[in-house]
Design a protein that fits this description.
Blueprint lengths: L3 E11 L5 H10 L4 E9 L4 E10 L1 H12 L4 E7 L4 E2 L3 H5 L2
């Protein structure tokens, strides 16, 4: 059964710089779904702001956003596209 995926943007604000390693570890775990990433250190306010664009099943997006948001000193919210698409299986991606 093919799983539907959505495009989403996850906005992350890291207020506790000691948590950057844990944030990066979670992003690495979900790396197969990440399309792009932009990070901005905002020294004036002492925070790091990260935007992640993903194409993934809704449960994966929710899990990543939830895990990030449960880290102390880290806030995360997801904004989903309204349009779902059937995920391509690995053979379709390779053109087999």
């Amino acid at each position: 059964m093919e799983e539907e995926t959505r495009i989403a943007v996850i906005g992350i604000i890291v207020e506790d710089k000691k948590k950057v390693g844990e944030v990066n570890q979670l992003l690495h775990e979900y790396g197969e779904f990440i399309i792009g990433r932009m990070g901005l250190p905002y020294e004036k306010r002492g925070v790091n702001i990260i935007s992640i664009v993903v194409d993934a099943p809704m449960d994966k997006i929710s899990a990543l956003s939830g895990k990030l948001g449960r880290l102390p000193g880290v806030g995360a919210k997801a904004l989903y596209s309204g349009k779902a698409k059937k995920a391509e299986n690995s053979e379709q991606k390779r053109g087999v």
